[in-house]
Amino acid sequence: VQLVESGGGLVQAGGSLRLSCAASGNVIRIAVMSWYRQAPGKERELVADITPAGTTNYAGPVNGRFTISGDNAKNTVYLQMSSLKPEDTAVYYCYASEIGGFISWGQGTQVTVSS
Fold it and tell me: Exposure string (b/e) for 52-80, b if CB count within 10 Å is 16 or more?
């Protein structure tokens, strides 16, 4: 599976951004798609994930502010980010886990939140 992210950028605190992740290849084998982020000097961390059936899961710091959704017809997953904070600044990565254990990462997209 190949993943291409888009939608990052610079936004002021309190603002919103929507990230997109388009999947191609053997998408029928995808078991879960996720968004991770990595801030400078920190480890990569899970932000949210979603299954093809629409079951979602969120990390505590983003719960209530971010929404993950998917469009199965377009093989695309979105991350709607609202009430952004400077601590949300990071490179955001799309991730896919396939049935059978194969995983794929996107190239990452920078999100910068100014105070």
Answer: eeeeeebeeebeeebbbebeeeebbbbbe
DSSP for residue 75? T
What percentage of residues in the chain have a pLDDT greater than 70? 100
- Average pLDDT (40-47) is 97
Q: CA-based diameter of the chain, in Å? A: 43
Report the candidate in 75, 58, 59, 77 with the shortest Cα–Cα distance to residue 18.
77
> Are the C-beta atoms of 35 and 108 separated by less than 8 Å?
no
Structure token digits, residue 57: 């899961």
Task: Specify whether the CB–CB gap between 7 and 112 falls below 8 A.
Answer: no
